[in-house]
Amino acid sequence: MLVPARREGQLDELHVILRAMPATARSARPPVLMPGRPLYEEVRAHLTEGVSAGRWKAGEAIPSEADLAAHFGVAIGTIRKAVDSLVAQGTLLRRQGKGTFVTAHDGRRLMFHFFHIVGADGAKAYPEVRTASFERGRADAAEAAALAVVRDERVIRIRNVLSLDGRAVIVDDITLPAALFPGLTERIFTARDNTIYHLFQGRYGINVLRTDERLRATLASGPTAALLGLPAGAPLLEIRRVAITFRDRPVELRVSRVNTASHVYHNTFGKGEAI
Description:
2 domains, alpha+beta
């Protein structure tokens, strides 16, 4: 059994354990152990690689903590700490009495985890989405910096108009690195039967784990104002969001411009509800 204090020869011993594991419960290439790195972080890295490589699909259960402890040769407490960190990150989801599952992006997750625009009275509603444009181009300096790609790399630019209660409230300008979404067409994008992040996950194996958002006040430009039915120069809330997957890799830049005359940005931080 591996113990945190033992480092010499640990890599070889861990490889032996991993080779004995079922293919669905191990990574193809175990990560290199880092000197002084806590053992739970090594286990966490293996589990992360398994999800990232698609060994456990969205909505599928990972092996039980007891099975993982036996496979890795570590205490259940070590496994639990690794799993806890992935649950907190949003990679995994615990379901009481059922097990731990790879998080799947669905309409409910969009509403309660990523979509933060609600009525002034706090009322929540699913947005109706219309795609106004779908184009291909080259990344400008700001897009390249946000997406961690070189300038002039191929990107996909999408403009969506989101309506709440029958009224256009948000204009989303989305930029995607084309290399991460091969074969994505306007038809595929608009024909999706779920959220955009569900499309990323189901078709391309890209799991959005978290987002980085920056908010500021802005004024509506002519085209944006027209889409929102406002005069040019009307005040808007601008939300600049970068969606991030494994290894802190950005996969989407989204700039949302919101008419806050009847709606507000609302985000509650802390532990979410149990599912």
